[in-house]
Prior knowledge:
The protein is mainly α. It has one domain. The chain is built from eleven helices and no strands. It has helices at 2-16, 19-38, 42-71, 73-80, 86-116, 119-150, 154-182, 189-196, 200-212, 219-229, 231-259. Helix 6 (119-150) packs antiparallel against helix 9 (200-212) and helix 10 (219-229) packs across helix 11 (231-259). The longest helix has 32 residues, at 119-150. It is globular. The two termini are 23 Å apart. The model has no long low-confidence stretch (mean pLDDT 85).
Amino acid sequence: MKIILKILKFEFSNVLRSKWVIFFFTFFFLASYALFSFENNTQKALLSLFNLTIYLVPLISLIFGTMYFYNSREYIEMILCQPIPRKALYLGLFLGTTLPLIISLITGVLIPFIMFGNFNEGISLVLLLLLISSLLTTISIAIAFLISTKITDKVKGLSLSIFFWLLSAIAFDGILLLIAFVFQDYPVEKFLLALSILNPVDLSRTIFILNFDISALMGITGALFKKFYGSQLGIIVSFLLLLVWVLLPLLLGLKNFKKKDF
């Protein structure tokens, strides 16, 4: 544990000075500032902000996590020459990369909300947005590290990370709708519900939209979760599945890292 904390401390201070983290904070601060200062309805501002975070947070985190791991190869090789367990090194790198992004995101959104937001109608929703965004950041970094430990070539690894984002954030709902249309004469709802588990972006959207209860914005995944689980149970199930999405790529990446020949 002491070794993990030492590596975490070094990586945290290193990543915190990164231009990516500064951009992460600046972008969400300016976006939140604009939305909360010009929009009188805090809930509408939060919904608009969520539509930004649901796409940009996974994209930035995936690209940053992938690039950072590949660029840290020489540092990893140097540390592995010391009697340091690979598990401690991997977890230290992972936490040291994830926490600065989460902190920059939280501060970038929370400061404008404190300045202009309506606490009575928006505090619970802004905390939910920050929790979902933090989980998406953690999931994206875990997937980026998994890809980086599995694929040695930097270009292929970065391409796969971007492809994963395109599939989960852009194409996934279209694929589900296509399946629903092609097999509309068959009872495929449970099958579509099972497929929706494969997309953390859709699960995050489901949690947030179910709190608003806006059926027009739910999409096919949100509609299925509400139909089978209801609003409250659907939110709990979605959260549990997101936690699985955190642990699964993290453990698989750790397994690959232990076997990887540097």
